[in-house]
């Protein structure tokens, strides 16, 4: 920060542009490049989530530029409020609305892109023509004195907000309250039917044709616990319910009957070995005359 | 450092945001581009504050941030409401008012 503070004094001493501070110059060019890349990415990326991430990058780089220009309070507010709160609200709404909704590339208005490009170039040229050269000959006053007047940047802004800009500040509070109430009204949904009581829920759960307990997990007692592998009931039959509904609808279920046959054959070929732990015997290998085909079942 | 550099960056960002508002269809992305324009204007305000040697520009930038936050809250609430009824977040879909 001391380097940054000395910049102001240096720049204020002479005409603009003659003094240059290497630190600020490097910061500016790095952050400006990243900010422009982020802005272009926001406009050009097809997926809205990518746009959100790109614009977050732009905002963070702008925050660094604020700090470099003797506005540490605004830099922090930029990171906390914009990048932290506003952009996360954007991402949250994206998750609600649907992340997969990428923009269609079909032009509904004919030639809109071309004319938007023309407008972009023209508008940028207009702005640059107004900006470049307009500050030549002016001296940069720097914020050292203004920041030091009340003991710091935050204190200085606070004094201004609560004296000269008090009316605007109060109006802002009204605006924020209106926005909060408006958001609640806009997103509020009336309950059209009364809430179900616990007794009603219980009755519904045990109604005929309903499954009162958890359905079996896929793959239980089967030889594979993949999601599309139906569970086997204790009698060897297939539990269709164990495969998730969408898979059942899409026909993704593996061939249940063939599997049942394989399973039954396997079970028949390998009688389950019940090892009596109390009996003296060969131990973990089990009696070898029962398992003739190397059954590690 | 010459404040013109900052102003040029601000102009570029503002123009990119304006072009995005013109081009994009997704209402949320359009909102992001509006945020980009507000940020660009904030950069210009901060630069002006430094050039003039007073903190007024920073206070104005602060108020811009507050208004932007309120705008985002209301705008996103409207988008969510439209999405609930129309099942789309495209700015081309709610054209019922068109003749």
Description:
The complex is a heterodimer of chains A (297) and B (99). Chain A is mostly helical. Helix content of chain A is 57%, strand content 1%. Chain A has a two-stranded antiparallel sheet. In chain A, strand 1 (231-232) and strand 2 (238-239) form a beta hairpin. In chain A, helix 2 (22-44) runs antiparallel to helix 3 and helix 3 (48-68) runs antiparallel to helix 4 (72-97). The N and C termini of chain A lie far apart (72 Å). Mean pLDDT of chain A is 78; it is low at 1-18 and 281-297. Chain B has 99 residues and is an all-alpha fold. Chain B contains three helices and no strands. Chain B has helices at 3-23, 27-52, 56-86. Chain B starts with a helix and ends in a 13-residue tail after the last helix. Classes of the chains: A mainly alpha (297), B mainly alpha (99). Chains A and B meet through helix 1, helix 2, helix 3, helix 4 and helix 5 of A and helix 1, helix 2 and helix 3 of B.
Topology:
The complex is a heterodimer of chains A (297) and B (99).
Chain A: H1 2-13, H2 22-44, H3 48-68, H4 72-97, H5 112-131, H6 144-149, H7 153-162, H8 166-187, H9 198-205, E1 231-232, E2 238-239, H10 245-250, H11 256-269
Antiparallel strand pairs in A: 1-2
Helix pairs in contact in A: 2-3, 3-4
Chain B: H1 3-23, H2 27-52, H3 56-86
Helix pairs in contact in B: 1-2, 2-3
Q: How much is the radius of gyration of chain A in Å?
A: 35 Å
Rounded to the nearest angstrom, the radius of gyration of chain B is 17 Å
Q: What number is the mean pLDDT of chain A?
A: 78
Strand content of chain A: under 5%
| Annotation, overall tally of beta strands of chain B | 0
Amino- and carboxy-terminal Cα gap of chain A: 72 Å
Number of helices of chain B: 3
Counting helices, strands and paired strands, the structural category of chain A is: mainly alpha
Beta-sheet strand percentage of chain B? under 5%
The biggest sheet of chain A, with number of strands, parallel, antiparallel or mixed sense and barrel status, is: 2 strands, antiparallel
Helix and strand sequence of chain A? HHHHHHHHHEEHH
State the low-pLDDT regions of chain A, or none: 1-18, 281-297
Level of helix content of chain A? Answer: 55-70%
- Spatial arrangement of strands, main beta sheet of chain A: 1-2
Assembly state:
heterodimer
The most extensive contact between chains is: A-B, 92 and 72 residues
Helix content estimate of chain B: over 70%
Structural class of chain B: mainly alpha
| Number of DSSP strand runs of chain A | 2
């Amino acid at each position: 920060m001391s380097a940054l503070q000395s910049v102001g004094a240096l720049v204020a001493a002479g005409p603009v542009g003659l003094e240059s501070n290497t630190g600020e110059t490097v910061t500016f060019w790095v952050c400006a490049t990243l900010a422009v890349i982020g802005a272009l990415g926001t406009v050009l990326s097809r997926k809205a989530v990518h746009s959100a991430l790109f614009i977050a990058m732009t905002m963070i780089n702008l925050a660094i530029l604020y700090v470099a220009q003797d506005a540490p309070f605004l830099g922090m507010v930029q990171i906390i409020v914009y990048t932290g709160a506003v952009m996360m609200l954007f991402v949250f709404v994206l998750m609600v609305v649907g992340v997969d909704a990428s923009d269609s590339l079909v032009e509904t208005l004919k030639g809109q892109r071309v004319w938007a490009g023309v407008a972009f170039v023209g508008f940028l040229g207009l702005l640059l023509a107004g900006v470049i050269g307009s500050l030549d000959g002016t001296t940069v006053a720097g914020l050292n004195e203004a920041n030091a007047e009340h003991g710091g940047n935050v204190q200085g802004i606070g004094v201004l907000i609560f004296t000269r800009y008090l009316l605007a500040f109060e109006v802002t509070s009204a605006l924020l309250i209106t926005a909060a109430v408006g958001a609640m009204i806009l997103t509020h949904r009336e309950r059209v039917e009364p809430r179900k009581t616990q007794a009603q829920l219980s009755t519904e759960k045990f109604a005929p044709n309903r499954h009162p307990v958890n359905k079996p997990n896929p793959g239980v007692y089967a030889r594979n616990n993949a999601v599309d592998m139906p569970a086997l009931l204790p009698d060897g039959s297939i539990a269709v319910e164990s495969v998730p509904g969408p898979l059942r609808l899409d026909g993704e279920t593996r061939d249940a009957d063939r599997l049942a046959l394989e399973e039954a054959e396997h079970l028949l070929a390998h009688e389950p070995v019940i090892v009596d732990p109390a009996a003296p015997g060969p131990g973990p290998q089990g009696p070898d005359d029962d398992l003739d085909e190397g059954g590690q079942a | 450092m010459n404040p013109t550099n900052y102003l040029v960056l601000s102009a570029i960002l503002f123009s990119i945001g304006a072009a995005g508002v013109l081009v994009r269809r997704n209402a949320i992305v359009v909102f992001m581009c509006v945020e980009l324009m507000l940020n660009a204007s904030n950069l210009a305000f901060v630069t002006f504050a430094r050039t003039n040697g007073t903190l007024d520009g920073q206070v104005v930038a602060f108020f811009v941030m507050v208004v932007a936050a309120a705008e985002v809250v209301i705008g996103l609430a409207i988008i969510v409401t439209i999405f609930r009824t129309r099942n789309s977040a495209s700015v081309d879909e709610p054209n019922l008012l068109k003749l």
